[in-house]
């Protein structure tokens, strides 16, 4: 079968141990950065029997699917999200399979951002490389309150990290999230306003959905302390457009550390977040880590092989299996 894997930005997919699972198949791995036009994507995917998507990097919509008559399967690393029109795939008899996620790498990156932002390591290192010595004064984490909005797998790991650093934890979110936090010995904020006002560091750890999109407003951020830190390794769209920069310029919060952006990949060095003196920015590295890639792509490749062996698994749209195209799978 012909398999296309787009968006291998770092040119690492072929180096993964799990890549050997695709031995014997015709595999094309593409490294180009977007944006790509509909025509370019259609040309790159024209002969594909299967696509293996890296998280949400490529948008798959009806217009593109109509240009891909050979496509039978999309194997998604992680879970299907809004980048993929699942209904359009189903209507065209294109099966979509899902894999697993892992909280380990994004939680570790969030903690690295918290440590670096609080100790102000990047400006200190940059100055040191320019011949300057001890140019700033950072803050220790012990005693600071870590606010966690979204007490899921990542939020729970961050709470455990906080305990090791002698930090009290304050949780906001659904009733279930707050109840779970209390059961684990943490505090639940009395209100949304109190959550933002009382936390020294706020970490956003929510899934992006219609309910959470643009849910964090300028008003929320304006309740934060002047020296507080806002951390976002989840999705940029959790915050209302422009609200973070507006709040930073207004002085509350004093700092931000972000790994996610409304437009990705972000290739403009003049972007305000990259140039802001009180923002620590990383290029969406939360899940970009070897063990995570082995998990994500290992699952995706297993799903491809199972599908073409006639025993599909982890299918997000089983209705598509009944509509599979009559064209036989090419060897």
TrEMBL record:
Residues 26-316 form the D-isomer specific 2-hydroxyacid dehydrogenase catalytic domain. One of its GO terms (molecular function) is oxidoreductase activity, acting on the CH-OH group of donors, NAD or NADP as acceptor. The keyword NAD applies. Keywords: NAD, Oxidoreductase. Residues 112-286 form the D-isomer specific 2-hydroxyacid dehydrogenase NAD-binding domain. This is D-2-hydroxyacid dehydrogenase family protein. InterPro entries: D-2-hydroxyacid_DH, D-isomer_2_OHA_DH_cat_dom, D-isomer_DH_NAD-bd, NAD(P)-bd_dom_sf. It comes from Pseudomonas alloputida. Belongs to the D-isomer specific 2-hydroxyacid dehydrogenase family.
């Amino acid at each position: 079968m012909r398999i296309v894997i787009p968006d291998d930005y770092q040119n690492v997919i072929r180096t993964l141990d799990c890549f050997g699972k695709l031995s014997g198949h015709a595999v094309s791995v593409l490294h180009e950065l977007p944006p790509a036009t509909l025509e370019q994507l259609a040309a790159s995917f024209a002969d594909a029997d299967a696509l293996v998507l890296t998280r949400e990097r490529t948008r798959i919509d009806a217009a593109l699917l109509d240009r891909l008559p050979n496509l039978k399967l999309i194997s998604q690393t992680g879970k299907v999200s809004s980048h993929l029109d699942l209904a359009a795939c189903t209507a065209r008899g294109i099966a979509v399979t899902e894999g697993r996620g892992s909280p380990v790498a994004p939680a570790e990156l969030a903690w690295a951002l918290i440590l670096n932002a609080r100790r102000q390591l990047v400006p200190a290192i940059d100055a040191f490389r320019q011949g300057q010595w001890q140019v700033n004064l950072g803050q220790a984490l012990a005693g600071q309150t870590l606010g966690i909005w979204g007490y899921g797998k990542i939020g729970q790991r961050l709470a455990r990290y906080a305990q090791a650093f002698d930090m009290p934890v304050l949780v906001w979110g659904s009733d279930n999230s707050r109840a779970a936090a209390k059961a684990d010995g943490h505090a639940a904020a009395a209100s949304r306003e109190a959550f933002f006002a009382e936390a020294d560091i706020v970490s956003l750890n929510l899934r992006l959905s219609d309910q959470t999109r643009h849910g964090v407003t300028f008003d929320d951020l304006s309740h934060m302390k002047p020296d507080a830190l806002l951390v976002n390794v989840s999705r940029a769209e959790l915050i209302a457009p422009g609200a973070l920069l507006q709040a930073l310029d207004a002085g509350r919060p004093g700092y931000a550390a972000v790994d996610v952006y409304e437009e990705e990949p972000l290739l403009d060095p003049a972007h305000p977040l990259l140039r802001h003196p009180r923002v620590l920015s990383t290029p969406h590295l939360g899940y970009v880590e070897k063990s995570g890639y082995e998990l994500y792509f290992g699952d995706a490749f297993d799903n491809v092989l199972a599908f073409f062996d006639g025993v599909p698994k982890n299918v997000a749209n089983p209705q598509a299996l009944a509509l599979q195209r009559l064209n036989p799978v090419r060897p």
